[in-house]
Structures are given as structure tokens and as C-alpha cells.
Amino acid sequence: MTFFEAIFLGIIQGVFMFLPVSSTSHLVLIQHWLITQGSALPAPESPEMILFDLVVHVGTLISIAVVFNKSLSGFLTRLKGDIQQYQGKNRGGKEFLYLRLGALGLFSVFITGVVGLPLKTYFEQIFAHPAAISVTLTITGILLYVTDILGPRKRGLRGINPGVAAAIGAAQGLALMPGLSRSGMTITFALLSGLKRRWAAEYSFFIAFPTILLATVVQALQVWYIQEPLNIGVFQLVVGFVVSALVGIAALKLVLKLLYRARFRYFSYYVWLLAAAVFISSMKGAL
């Protein structure tokens, strides 16, 4: 991987991580295209290329921390207070809302692992087949369209229960499949569970932290275990990480505006066009 390829792929991740159109599918399709143009990139389904994809995903976690700085810091402060009071002798019948939300978030991540890990090998095989990605992109488009025609959602933070957390976690596990947008899947399932749009977005992006970090650790261990020569150096990983973080800030702000105004269907049209283009290109052997 060259320096410019690392920058280019970092930009792709930063732009499409928060747009609900599956950043992974865009990374994979761009990688296939670069290889057809003579690039020496590893195959998109190779462990080291998947590791690079995860590292740039970690970069976009910085974007979440910046954009949701007030909400995240407020949550952590209240969570700390809940923990301290819970450990104290005089709990006074306190609700411990943020402690419960933290536990439910971890439960969502656990369900993601239960759903996603057994299917990890199968999902990774899809990286090698652009035609299959066109199918999952089509599904993403349908889900995005559904989110805009839903009526007002009434469930607030106190309405998040284990059933809602499990549904969102399962959606995130399925989104490990290339072409299914993580943000699109989790926000859609949160809205279908009745969660208000603001809380659907914040819950979705907050559980991205432990999920993406754990997935990156698992993939790094897999790359280390196979002990094969790597074609992607630490420098390229760092470049992709930094670029994706910077570009992701602008993309996330745009997505939040469109989500709150119920404008996700615009992305569904784009995803369907992309799915058609990918399918036709794969049939012609261009990908």
C-alpha cells in the first residue's frame, strides 16, 4: 500500500463511515478497483486488509468523540456518579439511569458478538464477491427508506430495555457483513423499536466504541497469529487513521442533520444506484 492509497482509503472511510451507505462496502469496492488498475494492495478479503479497514474505523471513533463531546462527557460524568452512589450504603431508591444505560450498551455489544462472531468467516468471504455486496447494498437502501416513512417515535432513554438493546446489538452483528451499513442498521432497528431519532443516533454511535475497538483487537490477533509477511506498514495504518478521523467529523455532522429531519431516503436512492452499478460491473468482470 502506498502513501497516497492510505490517504485515499482514509478519506473514503471518513466520508462514508457515518453516511448510512456502508463504509466497508465502499472500501472493499475501491480496493477491488485499485487492484484492477495495477495496485499491489492485498486482496480485500485478506486478514491484513481487513485489519486496515478496522484501523480506519477506529480513526472515525475520534470523530464521534469530537462531535458528541458534550453528550459523551455528560454521560460519563453521570455514569461515574451513578456508580459511586450505587456502591454507597445509602442508595435512596435512586433510578441509576446512566448505570443501566451503560450496562445495556455493553449488552448490545455482547449480542453483536453472539450474532457476528460465528458468521465472521462467512462475512469475510463476501469481501471477495462484489456481486454479493450489491445485494446487501440493496437491503441497506430498503432499510434507509423505511426510516423516513416511520411516524414520530416516542420511546426515550428510560424506555430502552434489554429487548431494545438486544435488537440493536443483533443489527450491529449483521452489519459486519459488507454492504450492510452499521449506522444504518442500528439506527433503523432503534427506530423500529420506537426510540426517538436523537437517542437512536446517540445510542448507535456510542456502542460503536467498544464494538469497533474489540473487532480491531480480534483482527490484529488473527494477523499476528498467521505470521505472514505484511504488505501494509505501520506508517500507512497511521495515515489512514488520521485522515479518516479528520474527514469523519464533517460527515457525522451532515448525517445528524439529515437524520433529525428524516432525510435518509436520499441515501437509499444512492445506495440502489450503487448496487446496480456494482452488479453490472461485476457481471462484466470490471470488479
Helix content: over 70%
Label the overall shape.
globular
Summing up helix and strand content along with how strands pair, one would put the structural category as mainly alpha
Annotation field: number of helices: 13
For the secondary structure, the number of strands is: 0
Q: Gap between N and C termini, in Å?
A: 19 Å
Rounded to an integer, what's the Rg over CA atoms? 19 Å
Q: What's the helix-strand series?
A: HHHHHHHHHHHHH
Query: Which residue ranges are poorly predicted, with pLDDT under 50 across at least 5 consecutive positions?
Result: none
Main sheet makeup: none
The percent range for strand residues is under 5%
Could you say how many structural domains there are in total? 1
Average of pLDDT: 83
Structure description:
With about 290 residues, the protein is mainly alpha-helical. It has one domain (about 5-80, about 95-285). The chain has helices spanning about 5-15, 25-35, 45-65, 70-85, 95-115, 120-125, 130-150, 160-175, 180-190, 195-205, 210-225, 235-260, 265-285. Helix 1 (about 5-15) packs parallel to helix 12 (about 235-260), helix 7 packs antiparallel against helix 13 (about 265-285) and helix 9 packs across helix 10. The longest helix has 27 residues, at about 235-260. The chain is globular, with a radius of gyration of 19 Å. The protein starts with a helix and ends with a helix.
